[in-house]
Amino acid sequence: MAASKQRPIAPRVLGAGLCLSLGCLLWAYPPVRLTRIADAARTQSGDGGSTPTVQFDPSAAARTFWDSVLPEGCSKATALTEILTTQQADPALARSRHGRKAGLGDTYYFVEGCGRVISREGARARVVIDGTTDLVELRLGPVFGNTVRDGTGLLDVNQYPGLDEFNALSSSLNALVEQEVLPELRAKAQAGGRVTFVGCAAAPEQVPPAGAPLLVIIPVRAKLLP
Amino acid sequence: MITILAFLGCKPSASTQAPSQAKAQTPPQRVAVVVSTLNNPWFVVLAETARDRARELGYEATIFDSQNDPTKESTHFDNLISAGYGAVLFNCTDAEGSIANVRRAKAAGIPVFCMDREIKANDAATSQILSDNYSGCIALGQYFIEQVGEDGNYVELLGIVADTNTWNRSKGFHSVVDRFPGLKMVAQQSADFDRSKALEVLESILQANPDIKAVFCGNDAMAMGAYQALLAAGKADRIKVFGFDGADDVVRSVAEGKITATVMQFPKTMARTAAENAEAFFKGRREFPQRVPVAVELVTRSNVGKFGDYGRK
Question: Which residues of A touch B (CB under 8 A)?
Fold first, then answer.
């Protein structure tokens, strides 16, 4: 029996097949990948590109907190009488029992109280708390620092993009206190008048000297009483 | 068929193994302490405390000095990843540029605990233990007003511009001082947190601005350099210097009435917390807060007796 004569594979068919294979390979594993600059920046900055970059607006964030979170949060402020009683006996116990802090940061109190203004000197109003002889000071002047932001215990640093943004929030909250709480107090809080308030104060490590206010409070809500 | 069944039934018996093979010795986990620089005593304390605490907890620990060079830092990460380190206690050189290094470690299954300096990503580091520089400089700014007054010219020496701490401190300071229009910043320049550079920069600034009342420096190394420049110019008794860190030499200087104030950071607290977090990770904990701010304290002549050795006495 004569050997069958095989027909040679057409070179063009072979070439086409090779090109097709190469094309598939390059499509699956491209040697060069084009990426938009914005996408690359998002990837570099930690967002894998799955969410759009949103600029943090500290004023808007502060306003949202002020209007939507703080009102209910004020109902959770601790009665000043309770803190002051403990603080005068054992400041460390008062801090551990009633203090609020961000991370390993400073300790603050979130307090509510009512009392009589006994003196007013510039940006300071000294108040004796009803039913006690305990003296506190309401700070009516420029607001600095993180007392308001960290004192309520209602804001978590890890809910914000970074420390820059968390600090900007602090400034915006301080501005809201200056714009919305302090003007009326500065204008009308006088010796003899009564005031009810909710506020934040740095928790002292030691009992203050005799005659000094037991706490210096930045009010976040305040109302002068008739 | 019988042969195949016989082989299938064969398996090594534990009793036939040597005792050393029966229970393989697990080497201790290794912890890498990657620090931005060892050319500043504050960072030496941070790094050595982290290393020592890791060793106390039973781990091998090695310090890697990035010499303030992001390229060197990157090489350290290459090496520690390939060498199989179990965790990194990290003090970055660049808040943005260091993110890629942390991501590489994370991809290799190595947790990274940042100390003192923040990286600007929320999903790279396992946790970041950070000084609350902003509020520290607010306290410093308020003291600055008390000491310098509400009028006059002053200079600011900034730290490394790629470090978020530089801007947290500057912003905290300015959030107070800028409320007083009589106070005028006549120069603001970076001296890279470096003592020698601060001396040179301030000497140059004083040529153009001889009548200043104070210098605010973003760290204590620069405060010492600034003080040296003022000494050389014969103005150290008239121009107040403010620093930040709580370095031993500046705390002594505050006690002596030379440098006016500084802010004590707590490098040992941050370092120990980072090392203890690494141990918790090795033991199975996976939930950590992304950022943990650590309080700082103003150090002045009136309270300097409470401080020393990079912390409270």
Answer: 44-47, 101-106, 142, 144-146, 157-158, 161-164, 167, 170-171
